[in-house]
Write a structure and sequence with these properties.
alpha+beta, six-stranded mixed β-sheet, 7 helices
Length: 286
C-alpha cells in the first residue's frame, strides 16, 4: 500500500496541452505588419525648400558689367565738394539728426549727411539743381549726371560728387553655413562672392539649381542658375543686385531626412507595437 502511494506521488506528471486561442492567423499578422509600415510611410510630408518655380535665365538679359544699379526707394547719400567749399554748401543738405541713431547731432562737427530716398518714379531730389533721374544708373553714372548738371547750371566749375548707398543688403537662405542678411559694400558682387559671405553651400545643398529672387519694376521674379556649369558666368543673375534673395535648395538626402510630419512619432510607435505583438503571437502559436 505504501509503495503504491509512493509510486503514485513520484510518477511523472503528464504534461497538459496549453490552449492558445488562434485569434490571429499568420495572414492576419502579415497584413498588420504591412499596414504598420504603410502608416509610417504615409505621414504628411512637406517639402523642405521654398522657391519651387521659375525659369532658367538667358545670357541676353545680362546686366552690363554686373554693377549694382539704383532702384526706386533706394537710400543714398550725396556729397558735393569743390576747391571753394562755400560754393558746395548749398548742395549739401546737412541734417540736424543722425541718420543712424535718429538722435539730434551735437555740434557742427557731428552733423550727419542727410539720407536721400529715390522716389517710386526713380527720381532723386537734389538741392539747387532739382530732381535727377537715378533709377537704372550705377553710382558712377549718377555722379557724372549730378556733376554735369551743376556745371551746366554755372554753379561750380570743378564739382566733385560722391554717392554712397546707405543700407544695401542681400539675403542668403537655405543650405549654406551661415544663412542671413548681408551688407553689400561693393558695386559689384557675384553669386560666388555672396555664398562665400555665407560660408559656402553645405554638402546637402544642390549646386545645379540655385534660386535668386529679384524684384524688377515692382514684380518679383525667380530665376535659377547652375553653379556646376561654366554657363553660370553668362547668367543675368550671376551678379547680384540689392535686395536679391539667394536660396540654396536641399538635395534629396536632406529633404528626406528633414520631412515634416506631425503624426510621425505616433505612427512609428504604433508600428513598433504591432510588430512586437505580432512577433509574440507568432512565437506562441508555434
Amino acid at each position: 500500500m505504501t509503495n503504491r502511494v509512493i509510486t503514485r506521488i513520484f510518477a511523472p506528471i503528464k504534461k497538459q496541452p496549453i490552449f492558445i486561442p488562434r485569434m490571429l492567423s499568420f495572414r492576419t499578422i502579415f497584413i498588420l505588419l504591412v499596414t504598420g509600415s504603410m502608416l509610417c510611410a504615409c505621414s504628411t510630408y512637406k517639402n523642405a525648400w521654398y522657391l519651387q518655380s521659375g525659369n532658367f535665365s538667358s545670357a541676353e538679359e545680362e546686366i552690363p558689367n554686373g554693377q549694382i544699379r539704383i532702384k526706386p526707394l533706394d537710400r543714398l547719400t550725396v556729397v558735393v565738394s569743390s576747391r571753394n567749399p562755400e560754393l558746395a554748401v548749398p548742395f549739401n543738405a546737412w541734417s540736424t539728426y543722425s541718420s543712424l541713431s535718429g538722435e539730434p547731432a551735437q555740434g557742427q562737427g557731428n552733423q550727419s549727411l542727410q539720407v536721400r530716398t529715390v522716389d517710386e518714379n526713380g527720381m532723386l531730389e537734389m538741392p539747387v539743381i532739382g530732381a535727377v533721374k537715378a533709377a537704372g544708373k550705377t553710382r558712377s553714372e549718377l555722379v557724372r549726371l549730378i556733376a554735369d548738371r551743376i556745371t551746366a547750371g554755372g554753379y561750380i566749375d570743378d564739382p566733385s560728387v560722391n554717392v554712397e548707398f546707405v543700407d544695401m543688403k542681400i539675403a542668403i537662405l537655405g543650405e549654406v553655413a551661415r544663412p542671413g542678411y548681408y551688407d553689400i559694400i561693393r558695386d559689384k558682387i557675384s553669386i560666388f562672392d555672396a555664398l562665400a559671405l555665407a560660408g559656402d553651400i553645405t554638402i546637402y545643398g544642390e549646386r545645379d539649381k540655385v534660386a535668386v529672387a529679384r524684384e524688377i519694376n515692382g514684380r518679383r521674379s525667380i530665376e535659377y542658375i547652375d553653379l556646376t556649369s561654366k554657363s553660370a558666368f553668362d547668367s543675368p543673375i550671376f551678379y547680384l543686385q540689392q535686395n536679391d534673395v539667394v536660396y540654396v535648395k536641399s538635395n534629396r538626402q536632406r529633404a528626406q531626412s528633414g520631412t515634416i510630419s506631425q503624426n510621425r512619432t505616433f505612427y512609428l510607435s504604433l508600428a513598433g507595437t504591432i510588430i512586437a505583438v505580432a512577433t509574440l503571437i507568432a512565437t506562441l502559436v508555434k
